[in-house]
Amino acid sequence: MIIYNESTAKFIEHVMEQRIENVLLERVKEKMNQFVSMSEIRSWTNSLPQMAKVLRAAKLKEDTHVLLEYKLPSTEKRIDFLITGEDQSGNQNAVIVELKQWQKTEVAMGDGIVKTLLGGRIRETVHPSYQSLSYKRYLENFNEALYADSSIQLSSCAYLHNYIPERNRNEEPLLHDRYTNYVEQSPLYFQFDDLELSERIKEAVVAGKGREIAKRIEEGRIRPSKRLVEAVNSLFKGNEEFILLDEQKVAYEKVLSIYNDLDHESDQKHTILIKGGPGTGKSVIGLNLMNFLLGDEATIEYITPNQSFREILRKKLIGRSGFVEIRSFFKGSASYVETPNNYYDVLVCDEAHRLKNQGHMKKKIEGENQATQIIRASRLSVFFIDDEQVISNKDIGRFDLLKEEAEKQNSIVHVVELDSQFRCSGSGNYLEWLDNLLYDRREDAVLDGDFEFEVVDSPHGLYNKVVKEKGGRLLAGYAWDWNTKLVDGELSKDVTIDEHQFAMPWNDPNRIDWAIHPEGADQIGCIHTVQGLEMEYVGVIIGKDLTYDAETMSLQVNREHFKDKGARPAKPKGTYKVDPLDQLVRNTYKTLMTRGMKGCYVYCVDEQLGERIKKLMNKNSENKL
């Protein structure tokens, strides 16, 4: 989505009349129905007049075009400034300009990482050249108008209009040798480099004719998000389709920095806990780490407690590469019961909240759990975790436990947090709204943005909308028994809703790759087979394990309708004690309802719950007016 797409002449006019902030605010409200923070408004006020000055100096034709606040597909990241036009030879060009108000930086450890003042304190962040270059590469992989073989040539740079570099450029932190590769590909322009930037832009778009180029970019078809299971083959070839954006890159480089500092002559361990909600790119970081560290000849394995997720990764890799050996890099969390101390350089554990107490049914070591074993077995252990995706009484991999287990083994603990949303069409608002629905967190959470969400009145309607129309999958809470025995050679249709004469089977337990296999379209996915996966669209059936009580105006978790006996905690004794099942059921539905990249449709067996959700949606619609 592009907030602003106007001719250069109109952009300069908006700036000169001091209306650019109001125009952008109106268009953000119109296109995204969102409010804008004061810091973002200040950045417009401070940076856009500087770009208007650059464009005036370039004396461009009126029909070059300026695009502002281009929201990268399926992320919350936005490109500050992009200009389109043709050069003297008739080549079509688009130039990304990343705008920064920075005044001072420091060299930081890690590839493409710097330190600067952000949010009132010195923080690590990505180098401006890396940031603009990553946005360029991201667009080249997602927008058909800008694919690498497109007639539109995309380039990038960064303009730090308040930044006065060191007089001796060899001493300037942003121009340190460690950043040379990125600066060469995506140049930096400082406070007094405005004329140089003007010349660069003029050379690219001097002939004008930018309207059609801008239109093609804005209307360019966005391919489905680069699914982990579809592109992982090229991962081992240095694939750029898994571009790391902002804090993803910081987390990645944090791990590599610690890895590079490991003393292999010492027994000192390091444990990195990377916290992030659904769709924050945890798996993308993990697979990038695996790819790099394998190339560095590190002994590394990628751990996924969810067997379905692991099997899909394996099959996609093996199917496209032909190398069955790749399978051995992906392991279950029960694989390290007898592994010697520091046997591996690195173990990366995805979905660590699904770790269990015992490593294997037949192999149990007193006082150990799977987290203990992973930390013991590696010099560097990396855990990706989200406490709100704990969905079973057997799940033990919460942040506090992992930290405690690491400290017991004298491992140095590092914590990294991921905030940006790369699933659910990059809509952090949807997650806030969902948290308000399930956990009653924020009264002012608004359901808006690009993510599709709808309550459907029947399970048949849900199937038609999600599976038939959009090619998605149906999922359900564990509110029905699961008969794993075949009935007349077919799966038992356990998920039944009698009032709608609806019956479908749970996903085939023998078909681990259910989520991508054609047969899966007529089966219903369980929480245990979809956690960690993503699909374009999901339809979620909310069973009677979660209902709405109109009298108390609250959600109710009903123990008698929760059928996953292995995941069900014991009922607490005492009238006023909170049932731990309450949190697990809510976590289950949050996990199910965040599997979709583009949309989530819901059917509620409890009509009152369906009406409650609709009411919240209508309330948000009223707030938008």
Radius of gyration: 26 Å
Oligomer: single chain
Q: What structural category arises from helix and sheet content?
A: alpha/beta
State the share of residues found in helices, binned by percent: 25-40%
Low-confidence stretches: 223-241, 320-325
What does this entry look like structurally?
This protein is of the alpha/beta class and 625 residues long. It has three domains: 2-219, no CATH class; 228-418, Rossmann fold; 424-624, no CATH class. The protein contains 18 helices and 24 strands. It has a six-stranded mixed β-sheet with strand order 1-2-3-4-8-9, sandwiched between helices. Helix 14 (428-439) runs antiparallel to helix 17. It is globular and about 75 Å long. The chain starts with a strand and ends with a helix. The relative contact order is 0.09. This is ATP/GTP-binding protein. Residues 268-405 form the AAA+ ATPase domain.
Quick structural gist:
With 625 residues, the protein is α/β, with parallel strands linked by helices.
Topology of helices and strands:
Elements: E1 2-7, H1 8-16, H2 20-32, H3 38-58, E2 65-71, E3 78-86, E4 92-100, E5 105-107, E6 113-118, E7 121-126, H4 128-142, E8 152-160, H5 180-185, E9 188-189, H6 194-205, H7 210-219, H8 228-231, H9 247-260, E10 270-276, H10 282-295, E11 300-303, H11 307-321, E12 330-331, E13 344-349, H12 370-377, E14 378-385, H13 399-408, E15 412-418, H14 428-439, E16 452-455, H15 459-469, E17 473-476, E18 495-497, E19 502-504, E20 524-525, H16 527-530, E21 535-542, E22 546-549, E23 554-557, H17 581-592, E24 596-604, H18 607-624
Parallel strand pairs: 4-8, 8-9, 10-14, 10-15, 11-12, 11-13, 13-14, 16-24, 17-20, 17-21, 21-24
Antiparallel strand pairs: 1-2, 2-3, 3-4, 5-6, 6-7, 18-19, 22-23
Helix pairs in contact: 1-3, 3-6, 9-10, 14-17
Organism: Chryseomicrobium excrementi
InterPro entries: AAA+_ATPase (IPR003593), P-loop_NTPase (IPR027417), SLFN_3-like_DNA/RNA_helicase (IPR018647)
Protein name: ATP/GTP-binding protein
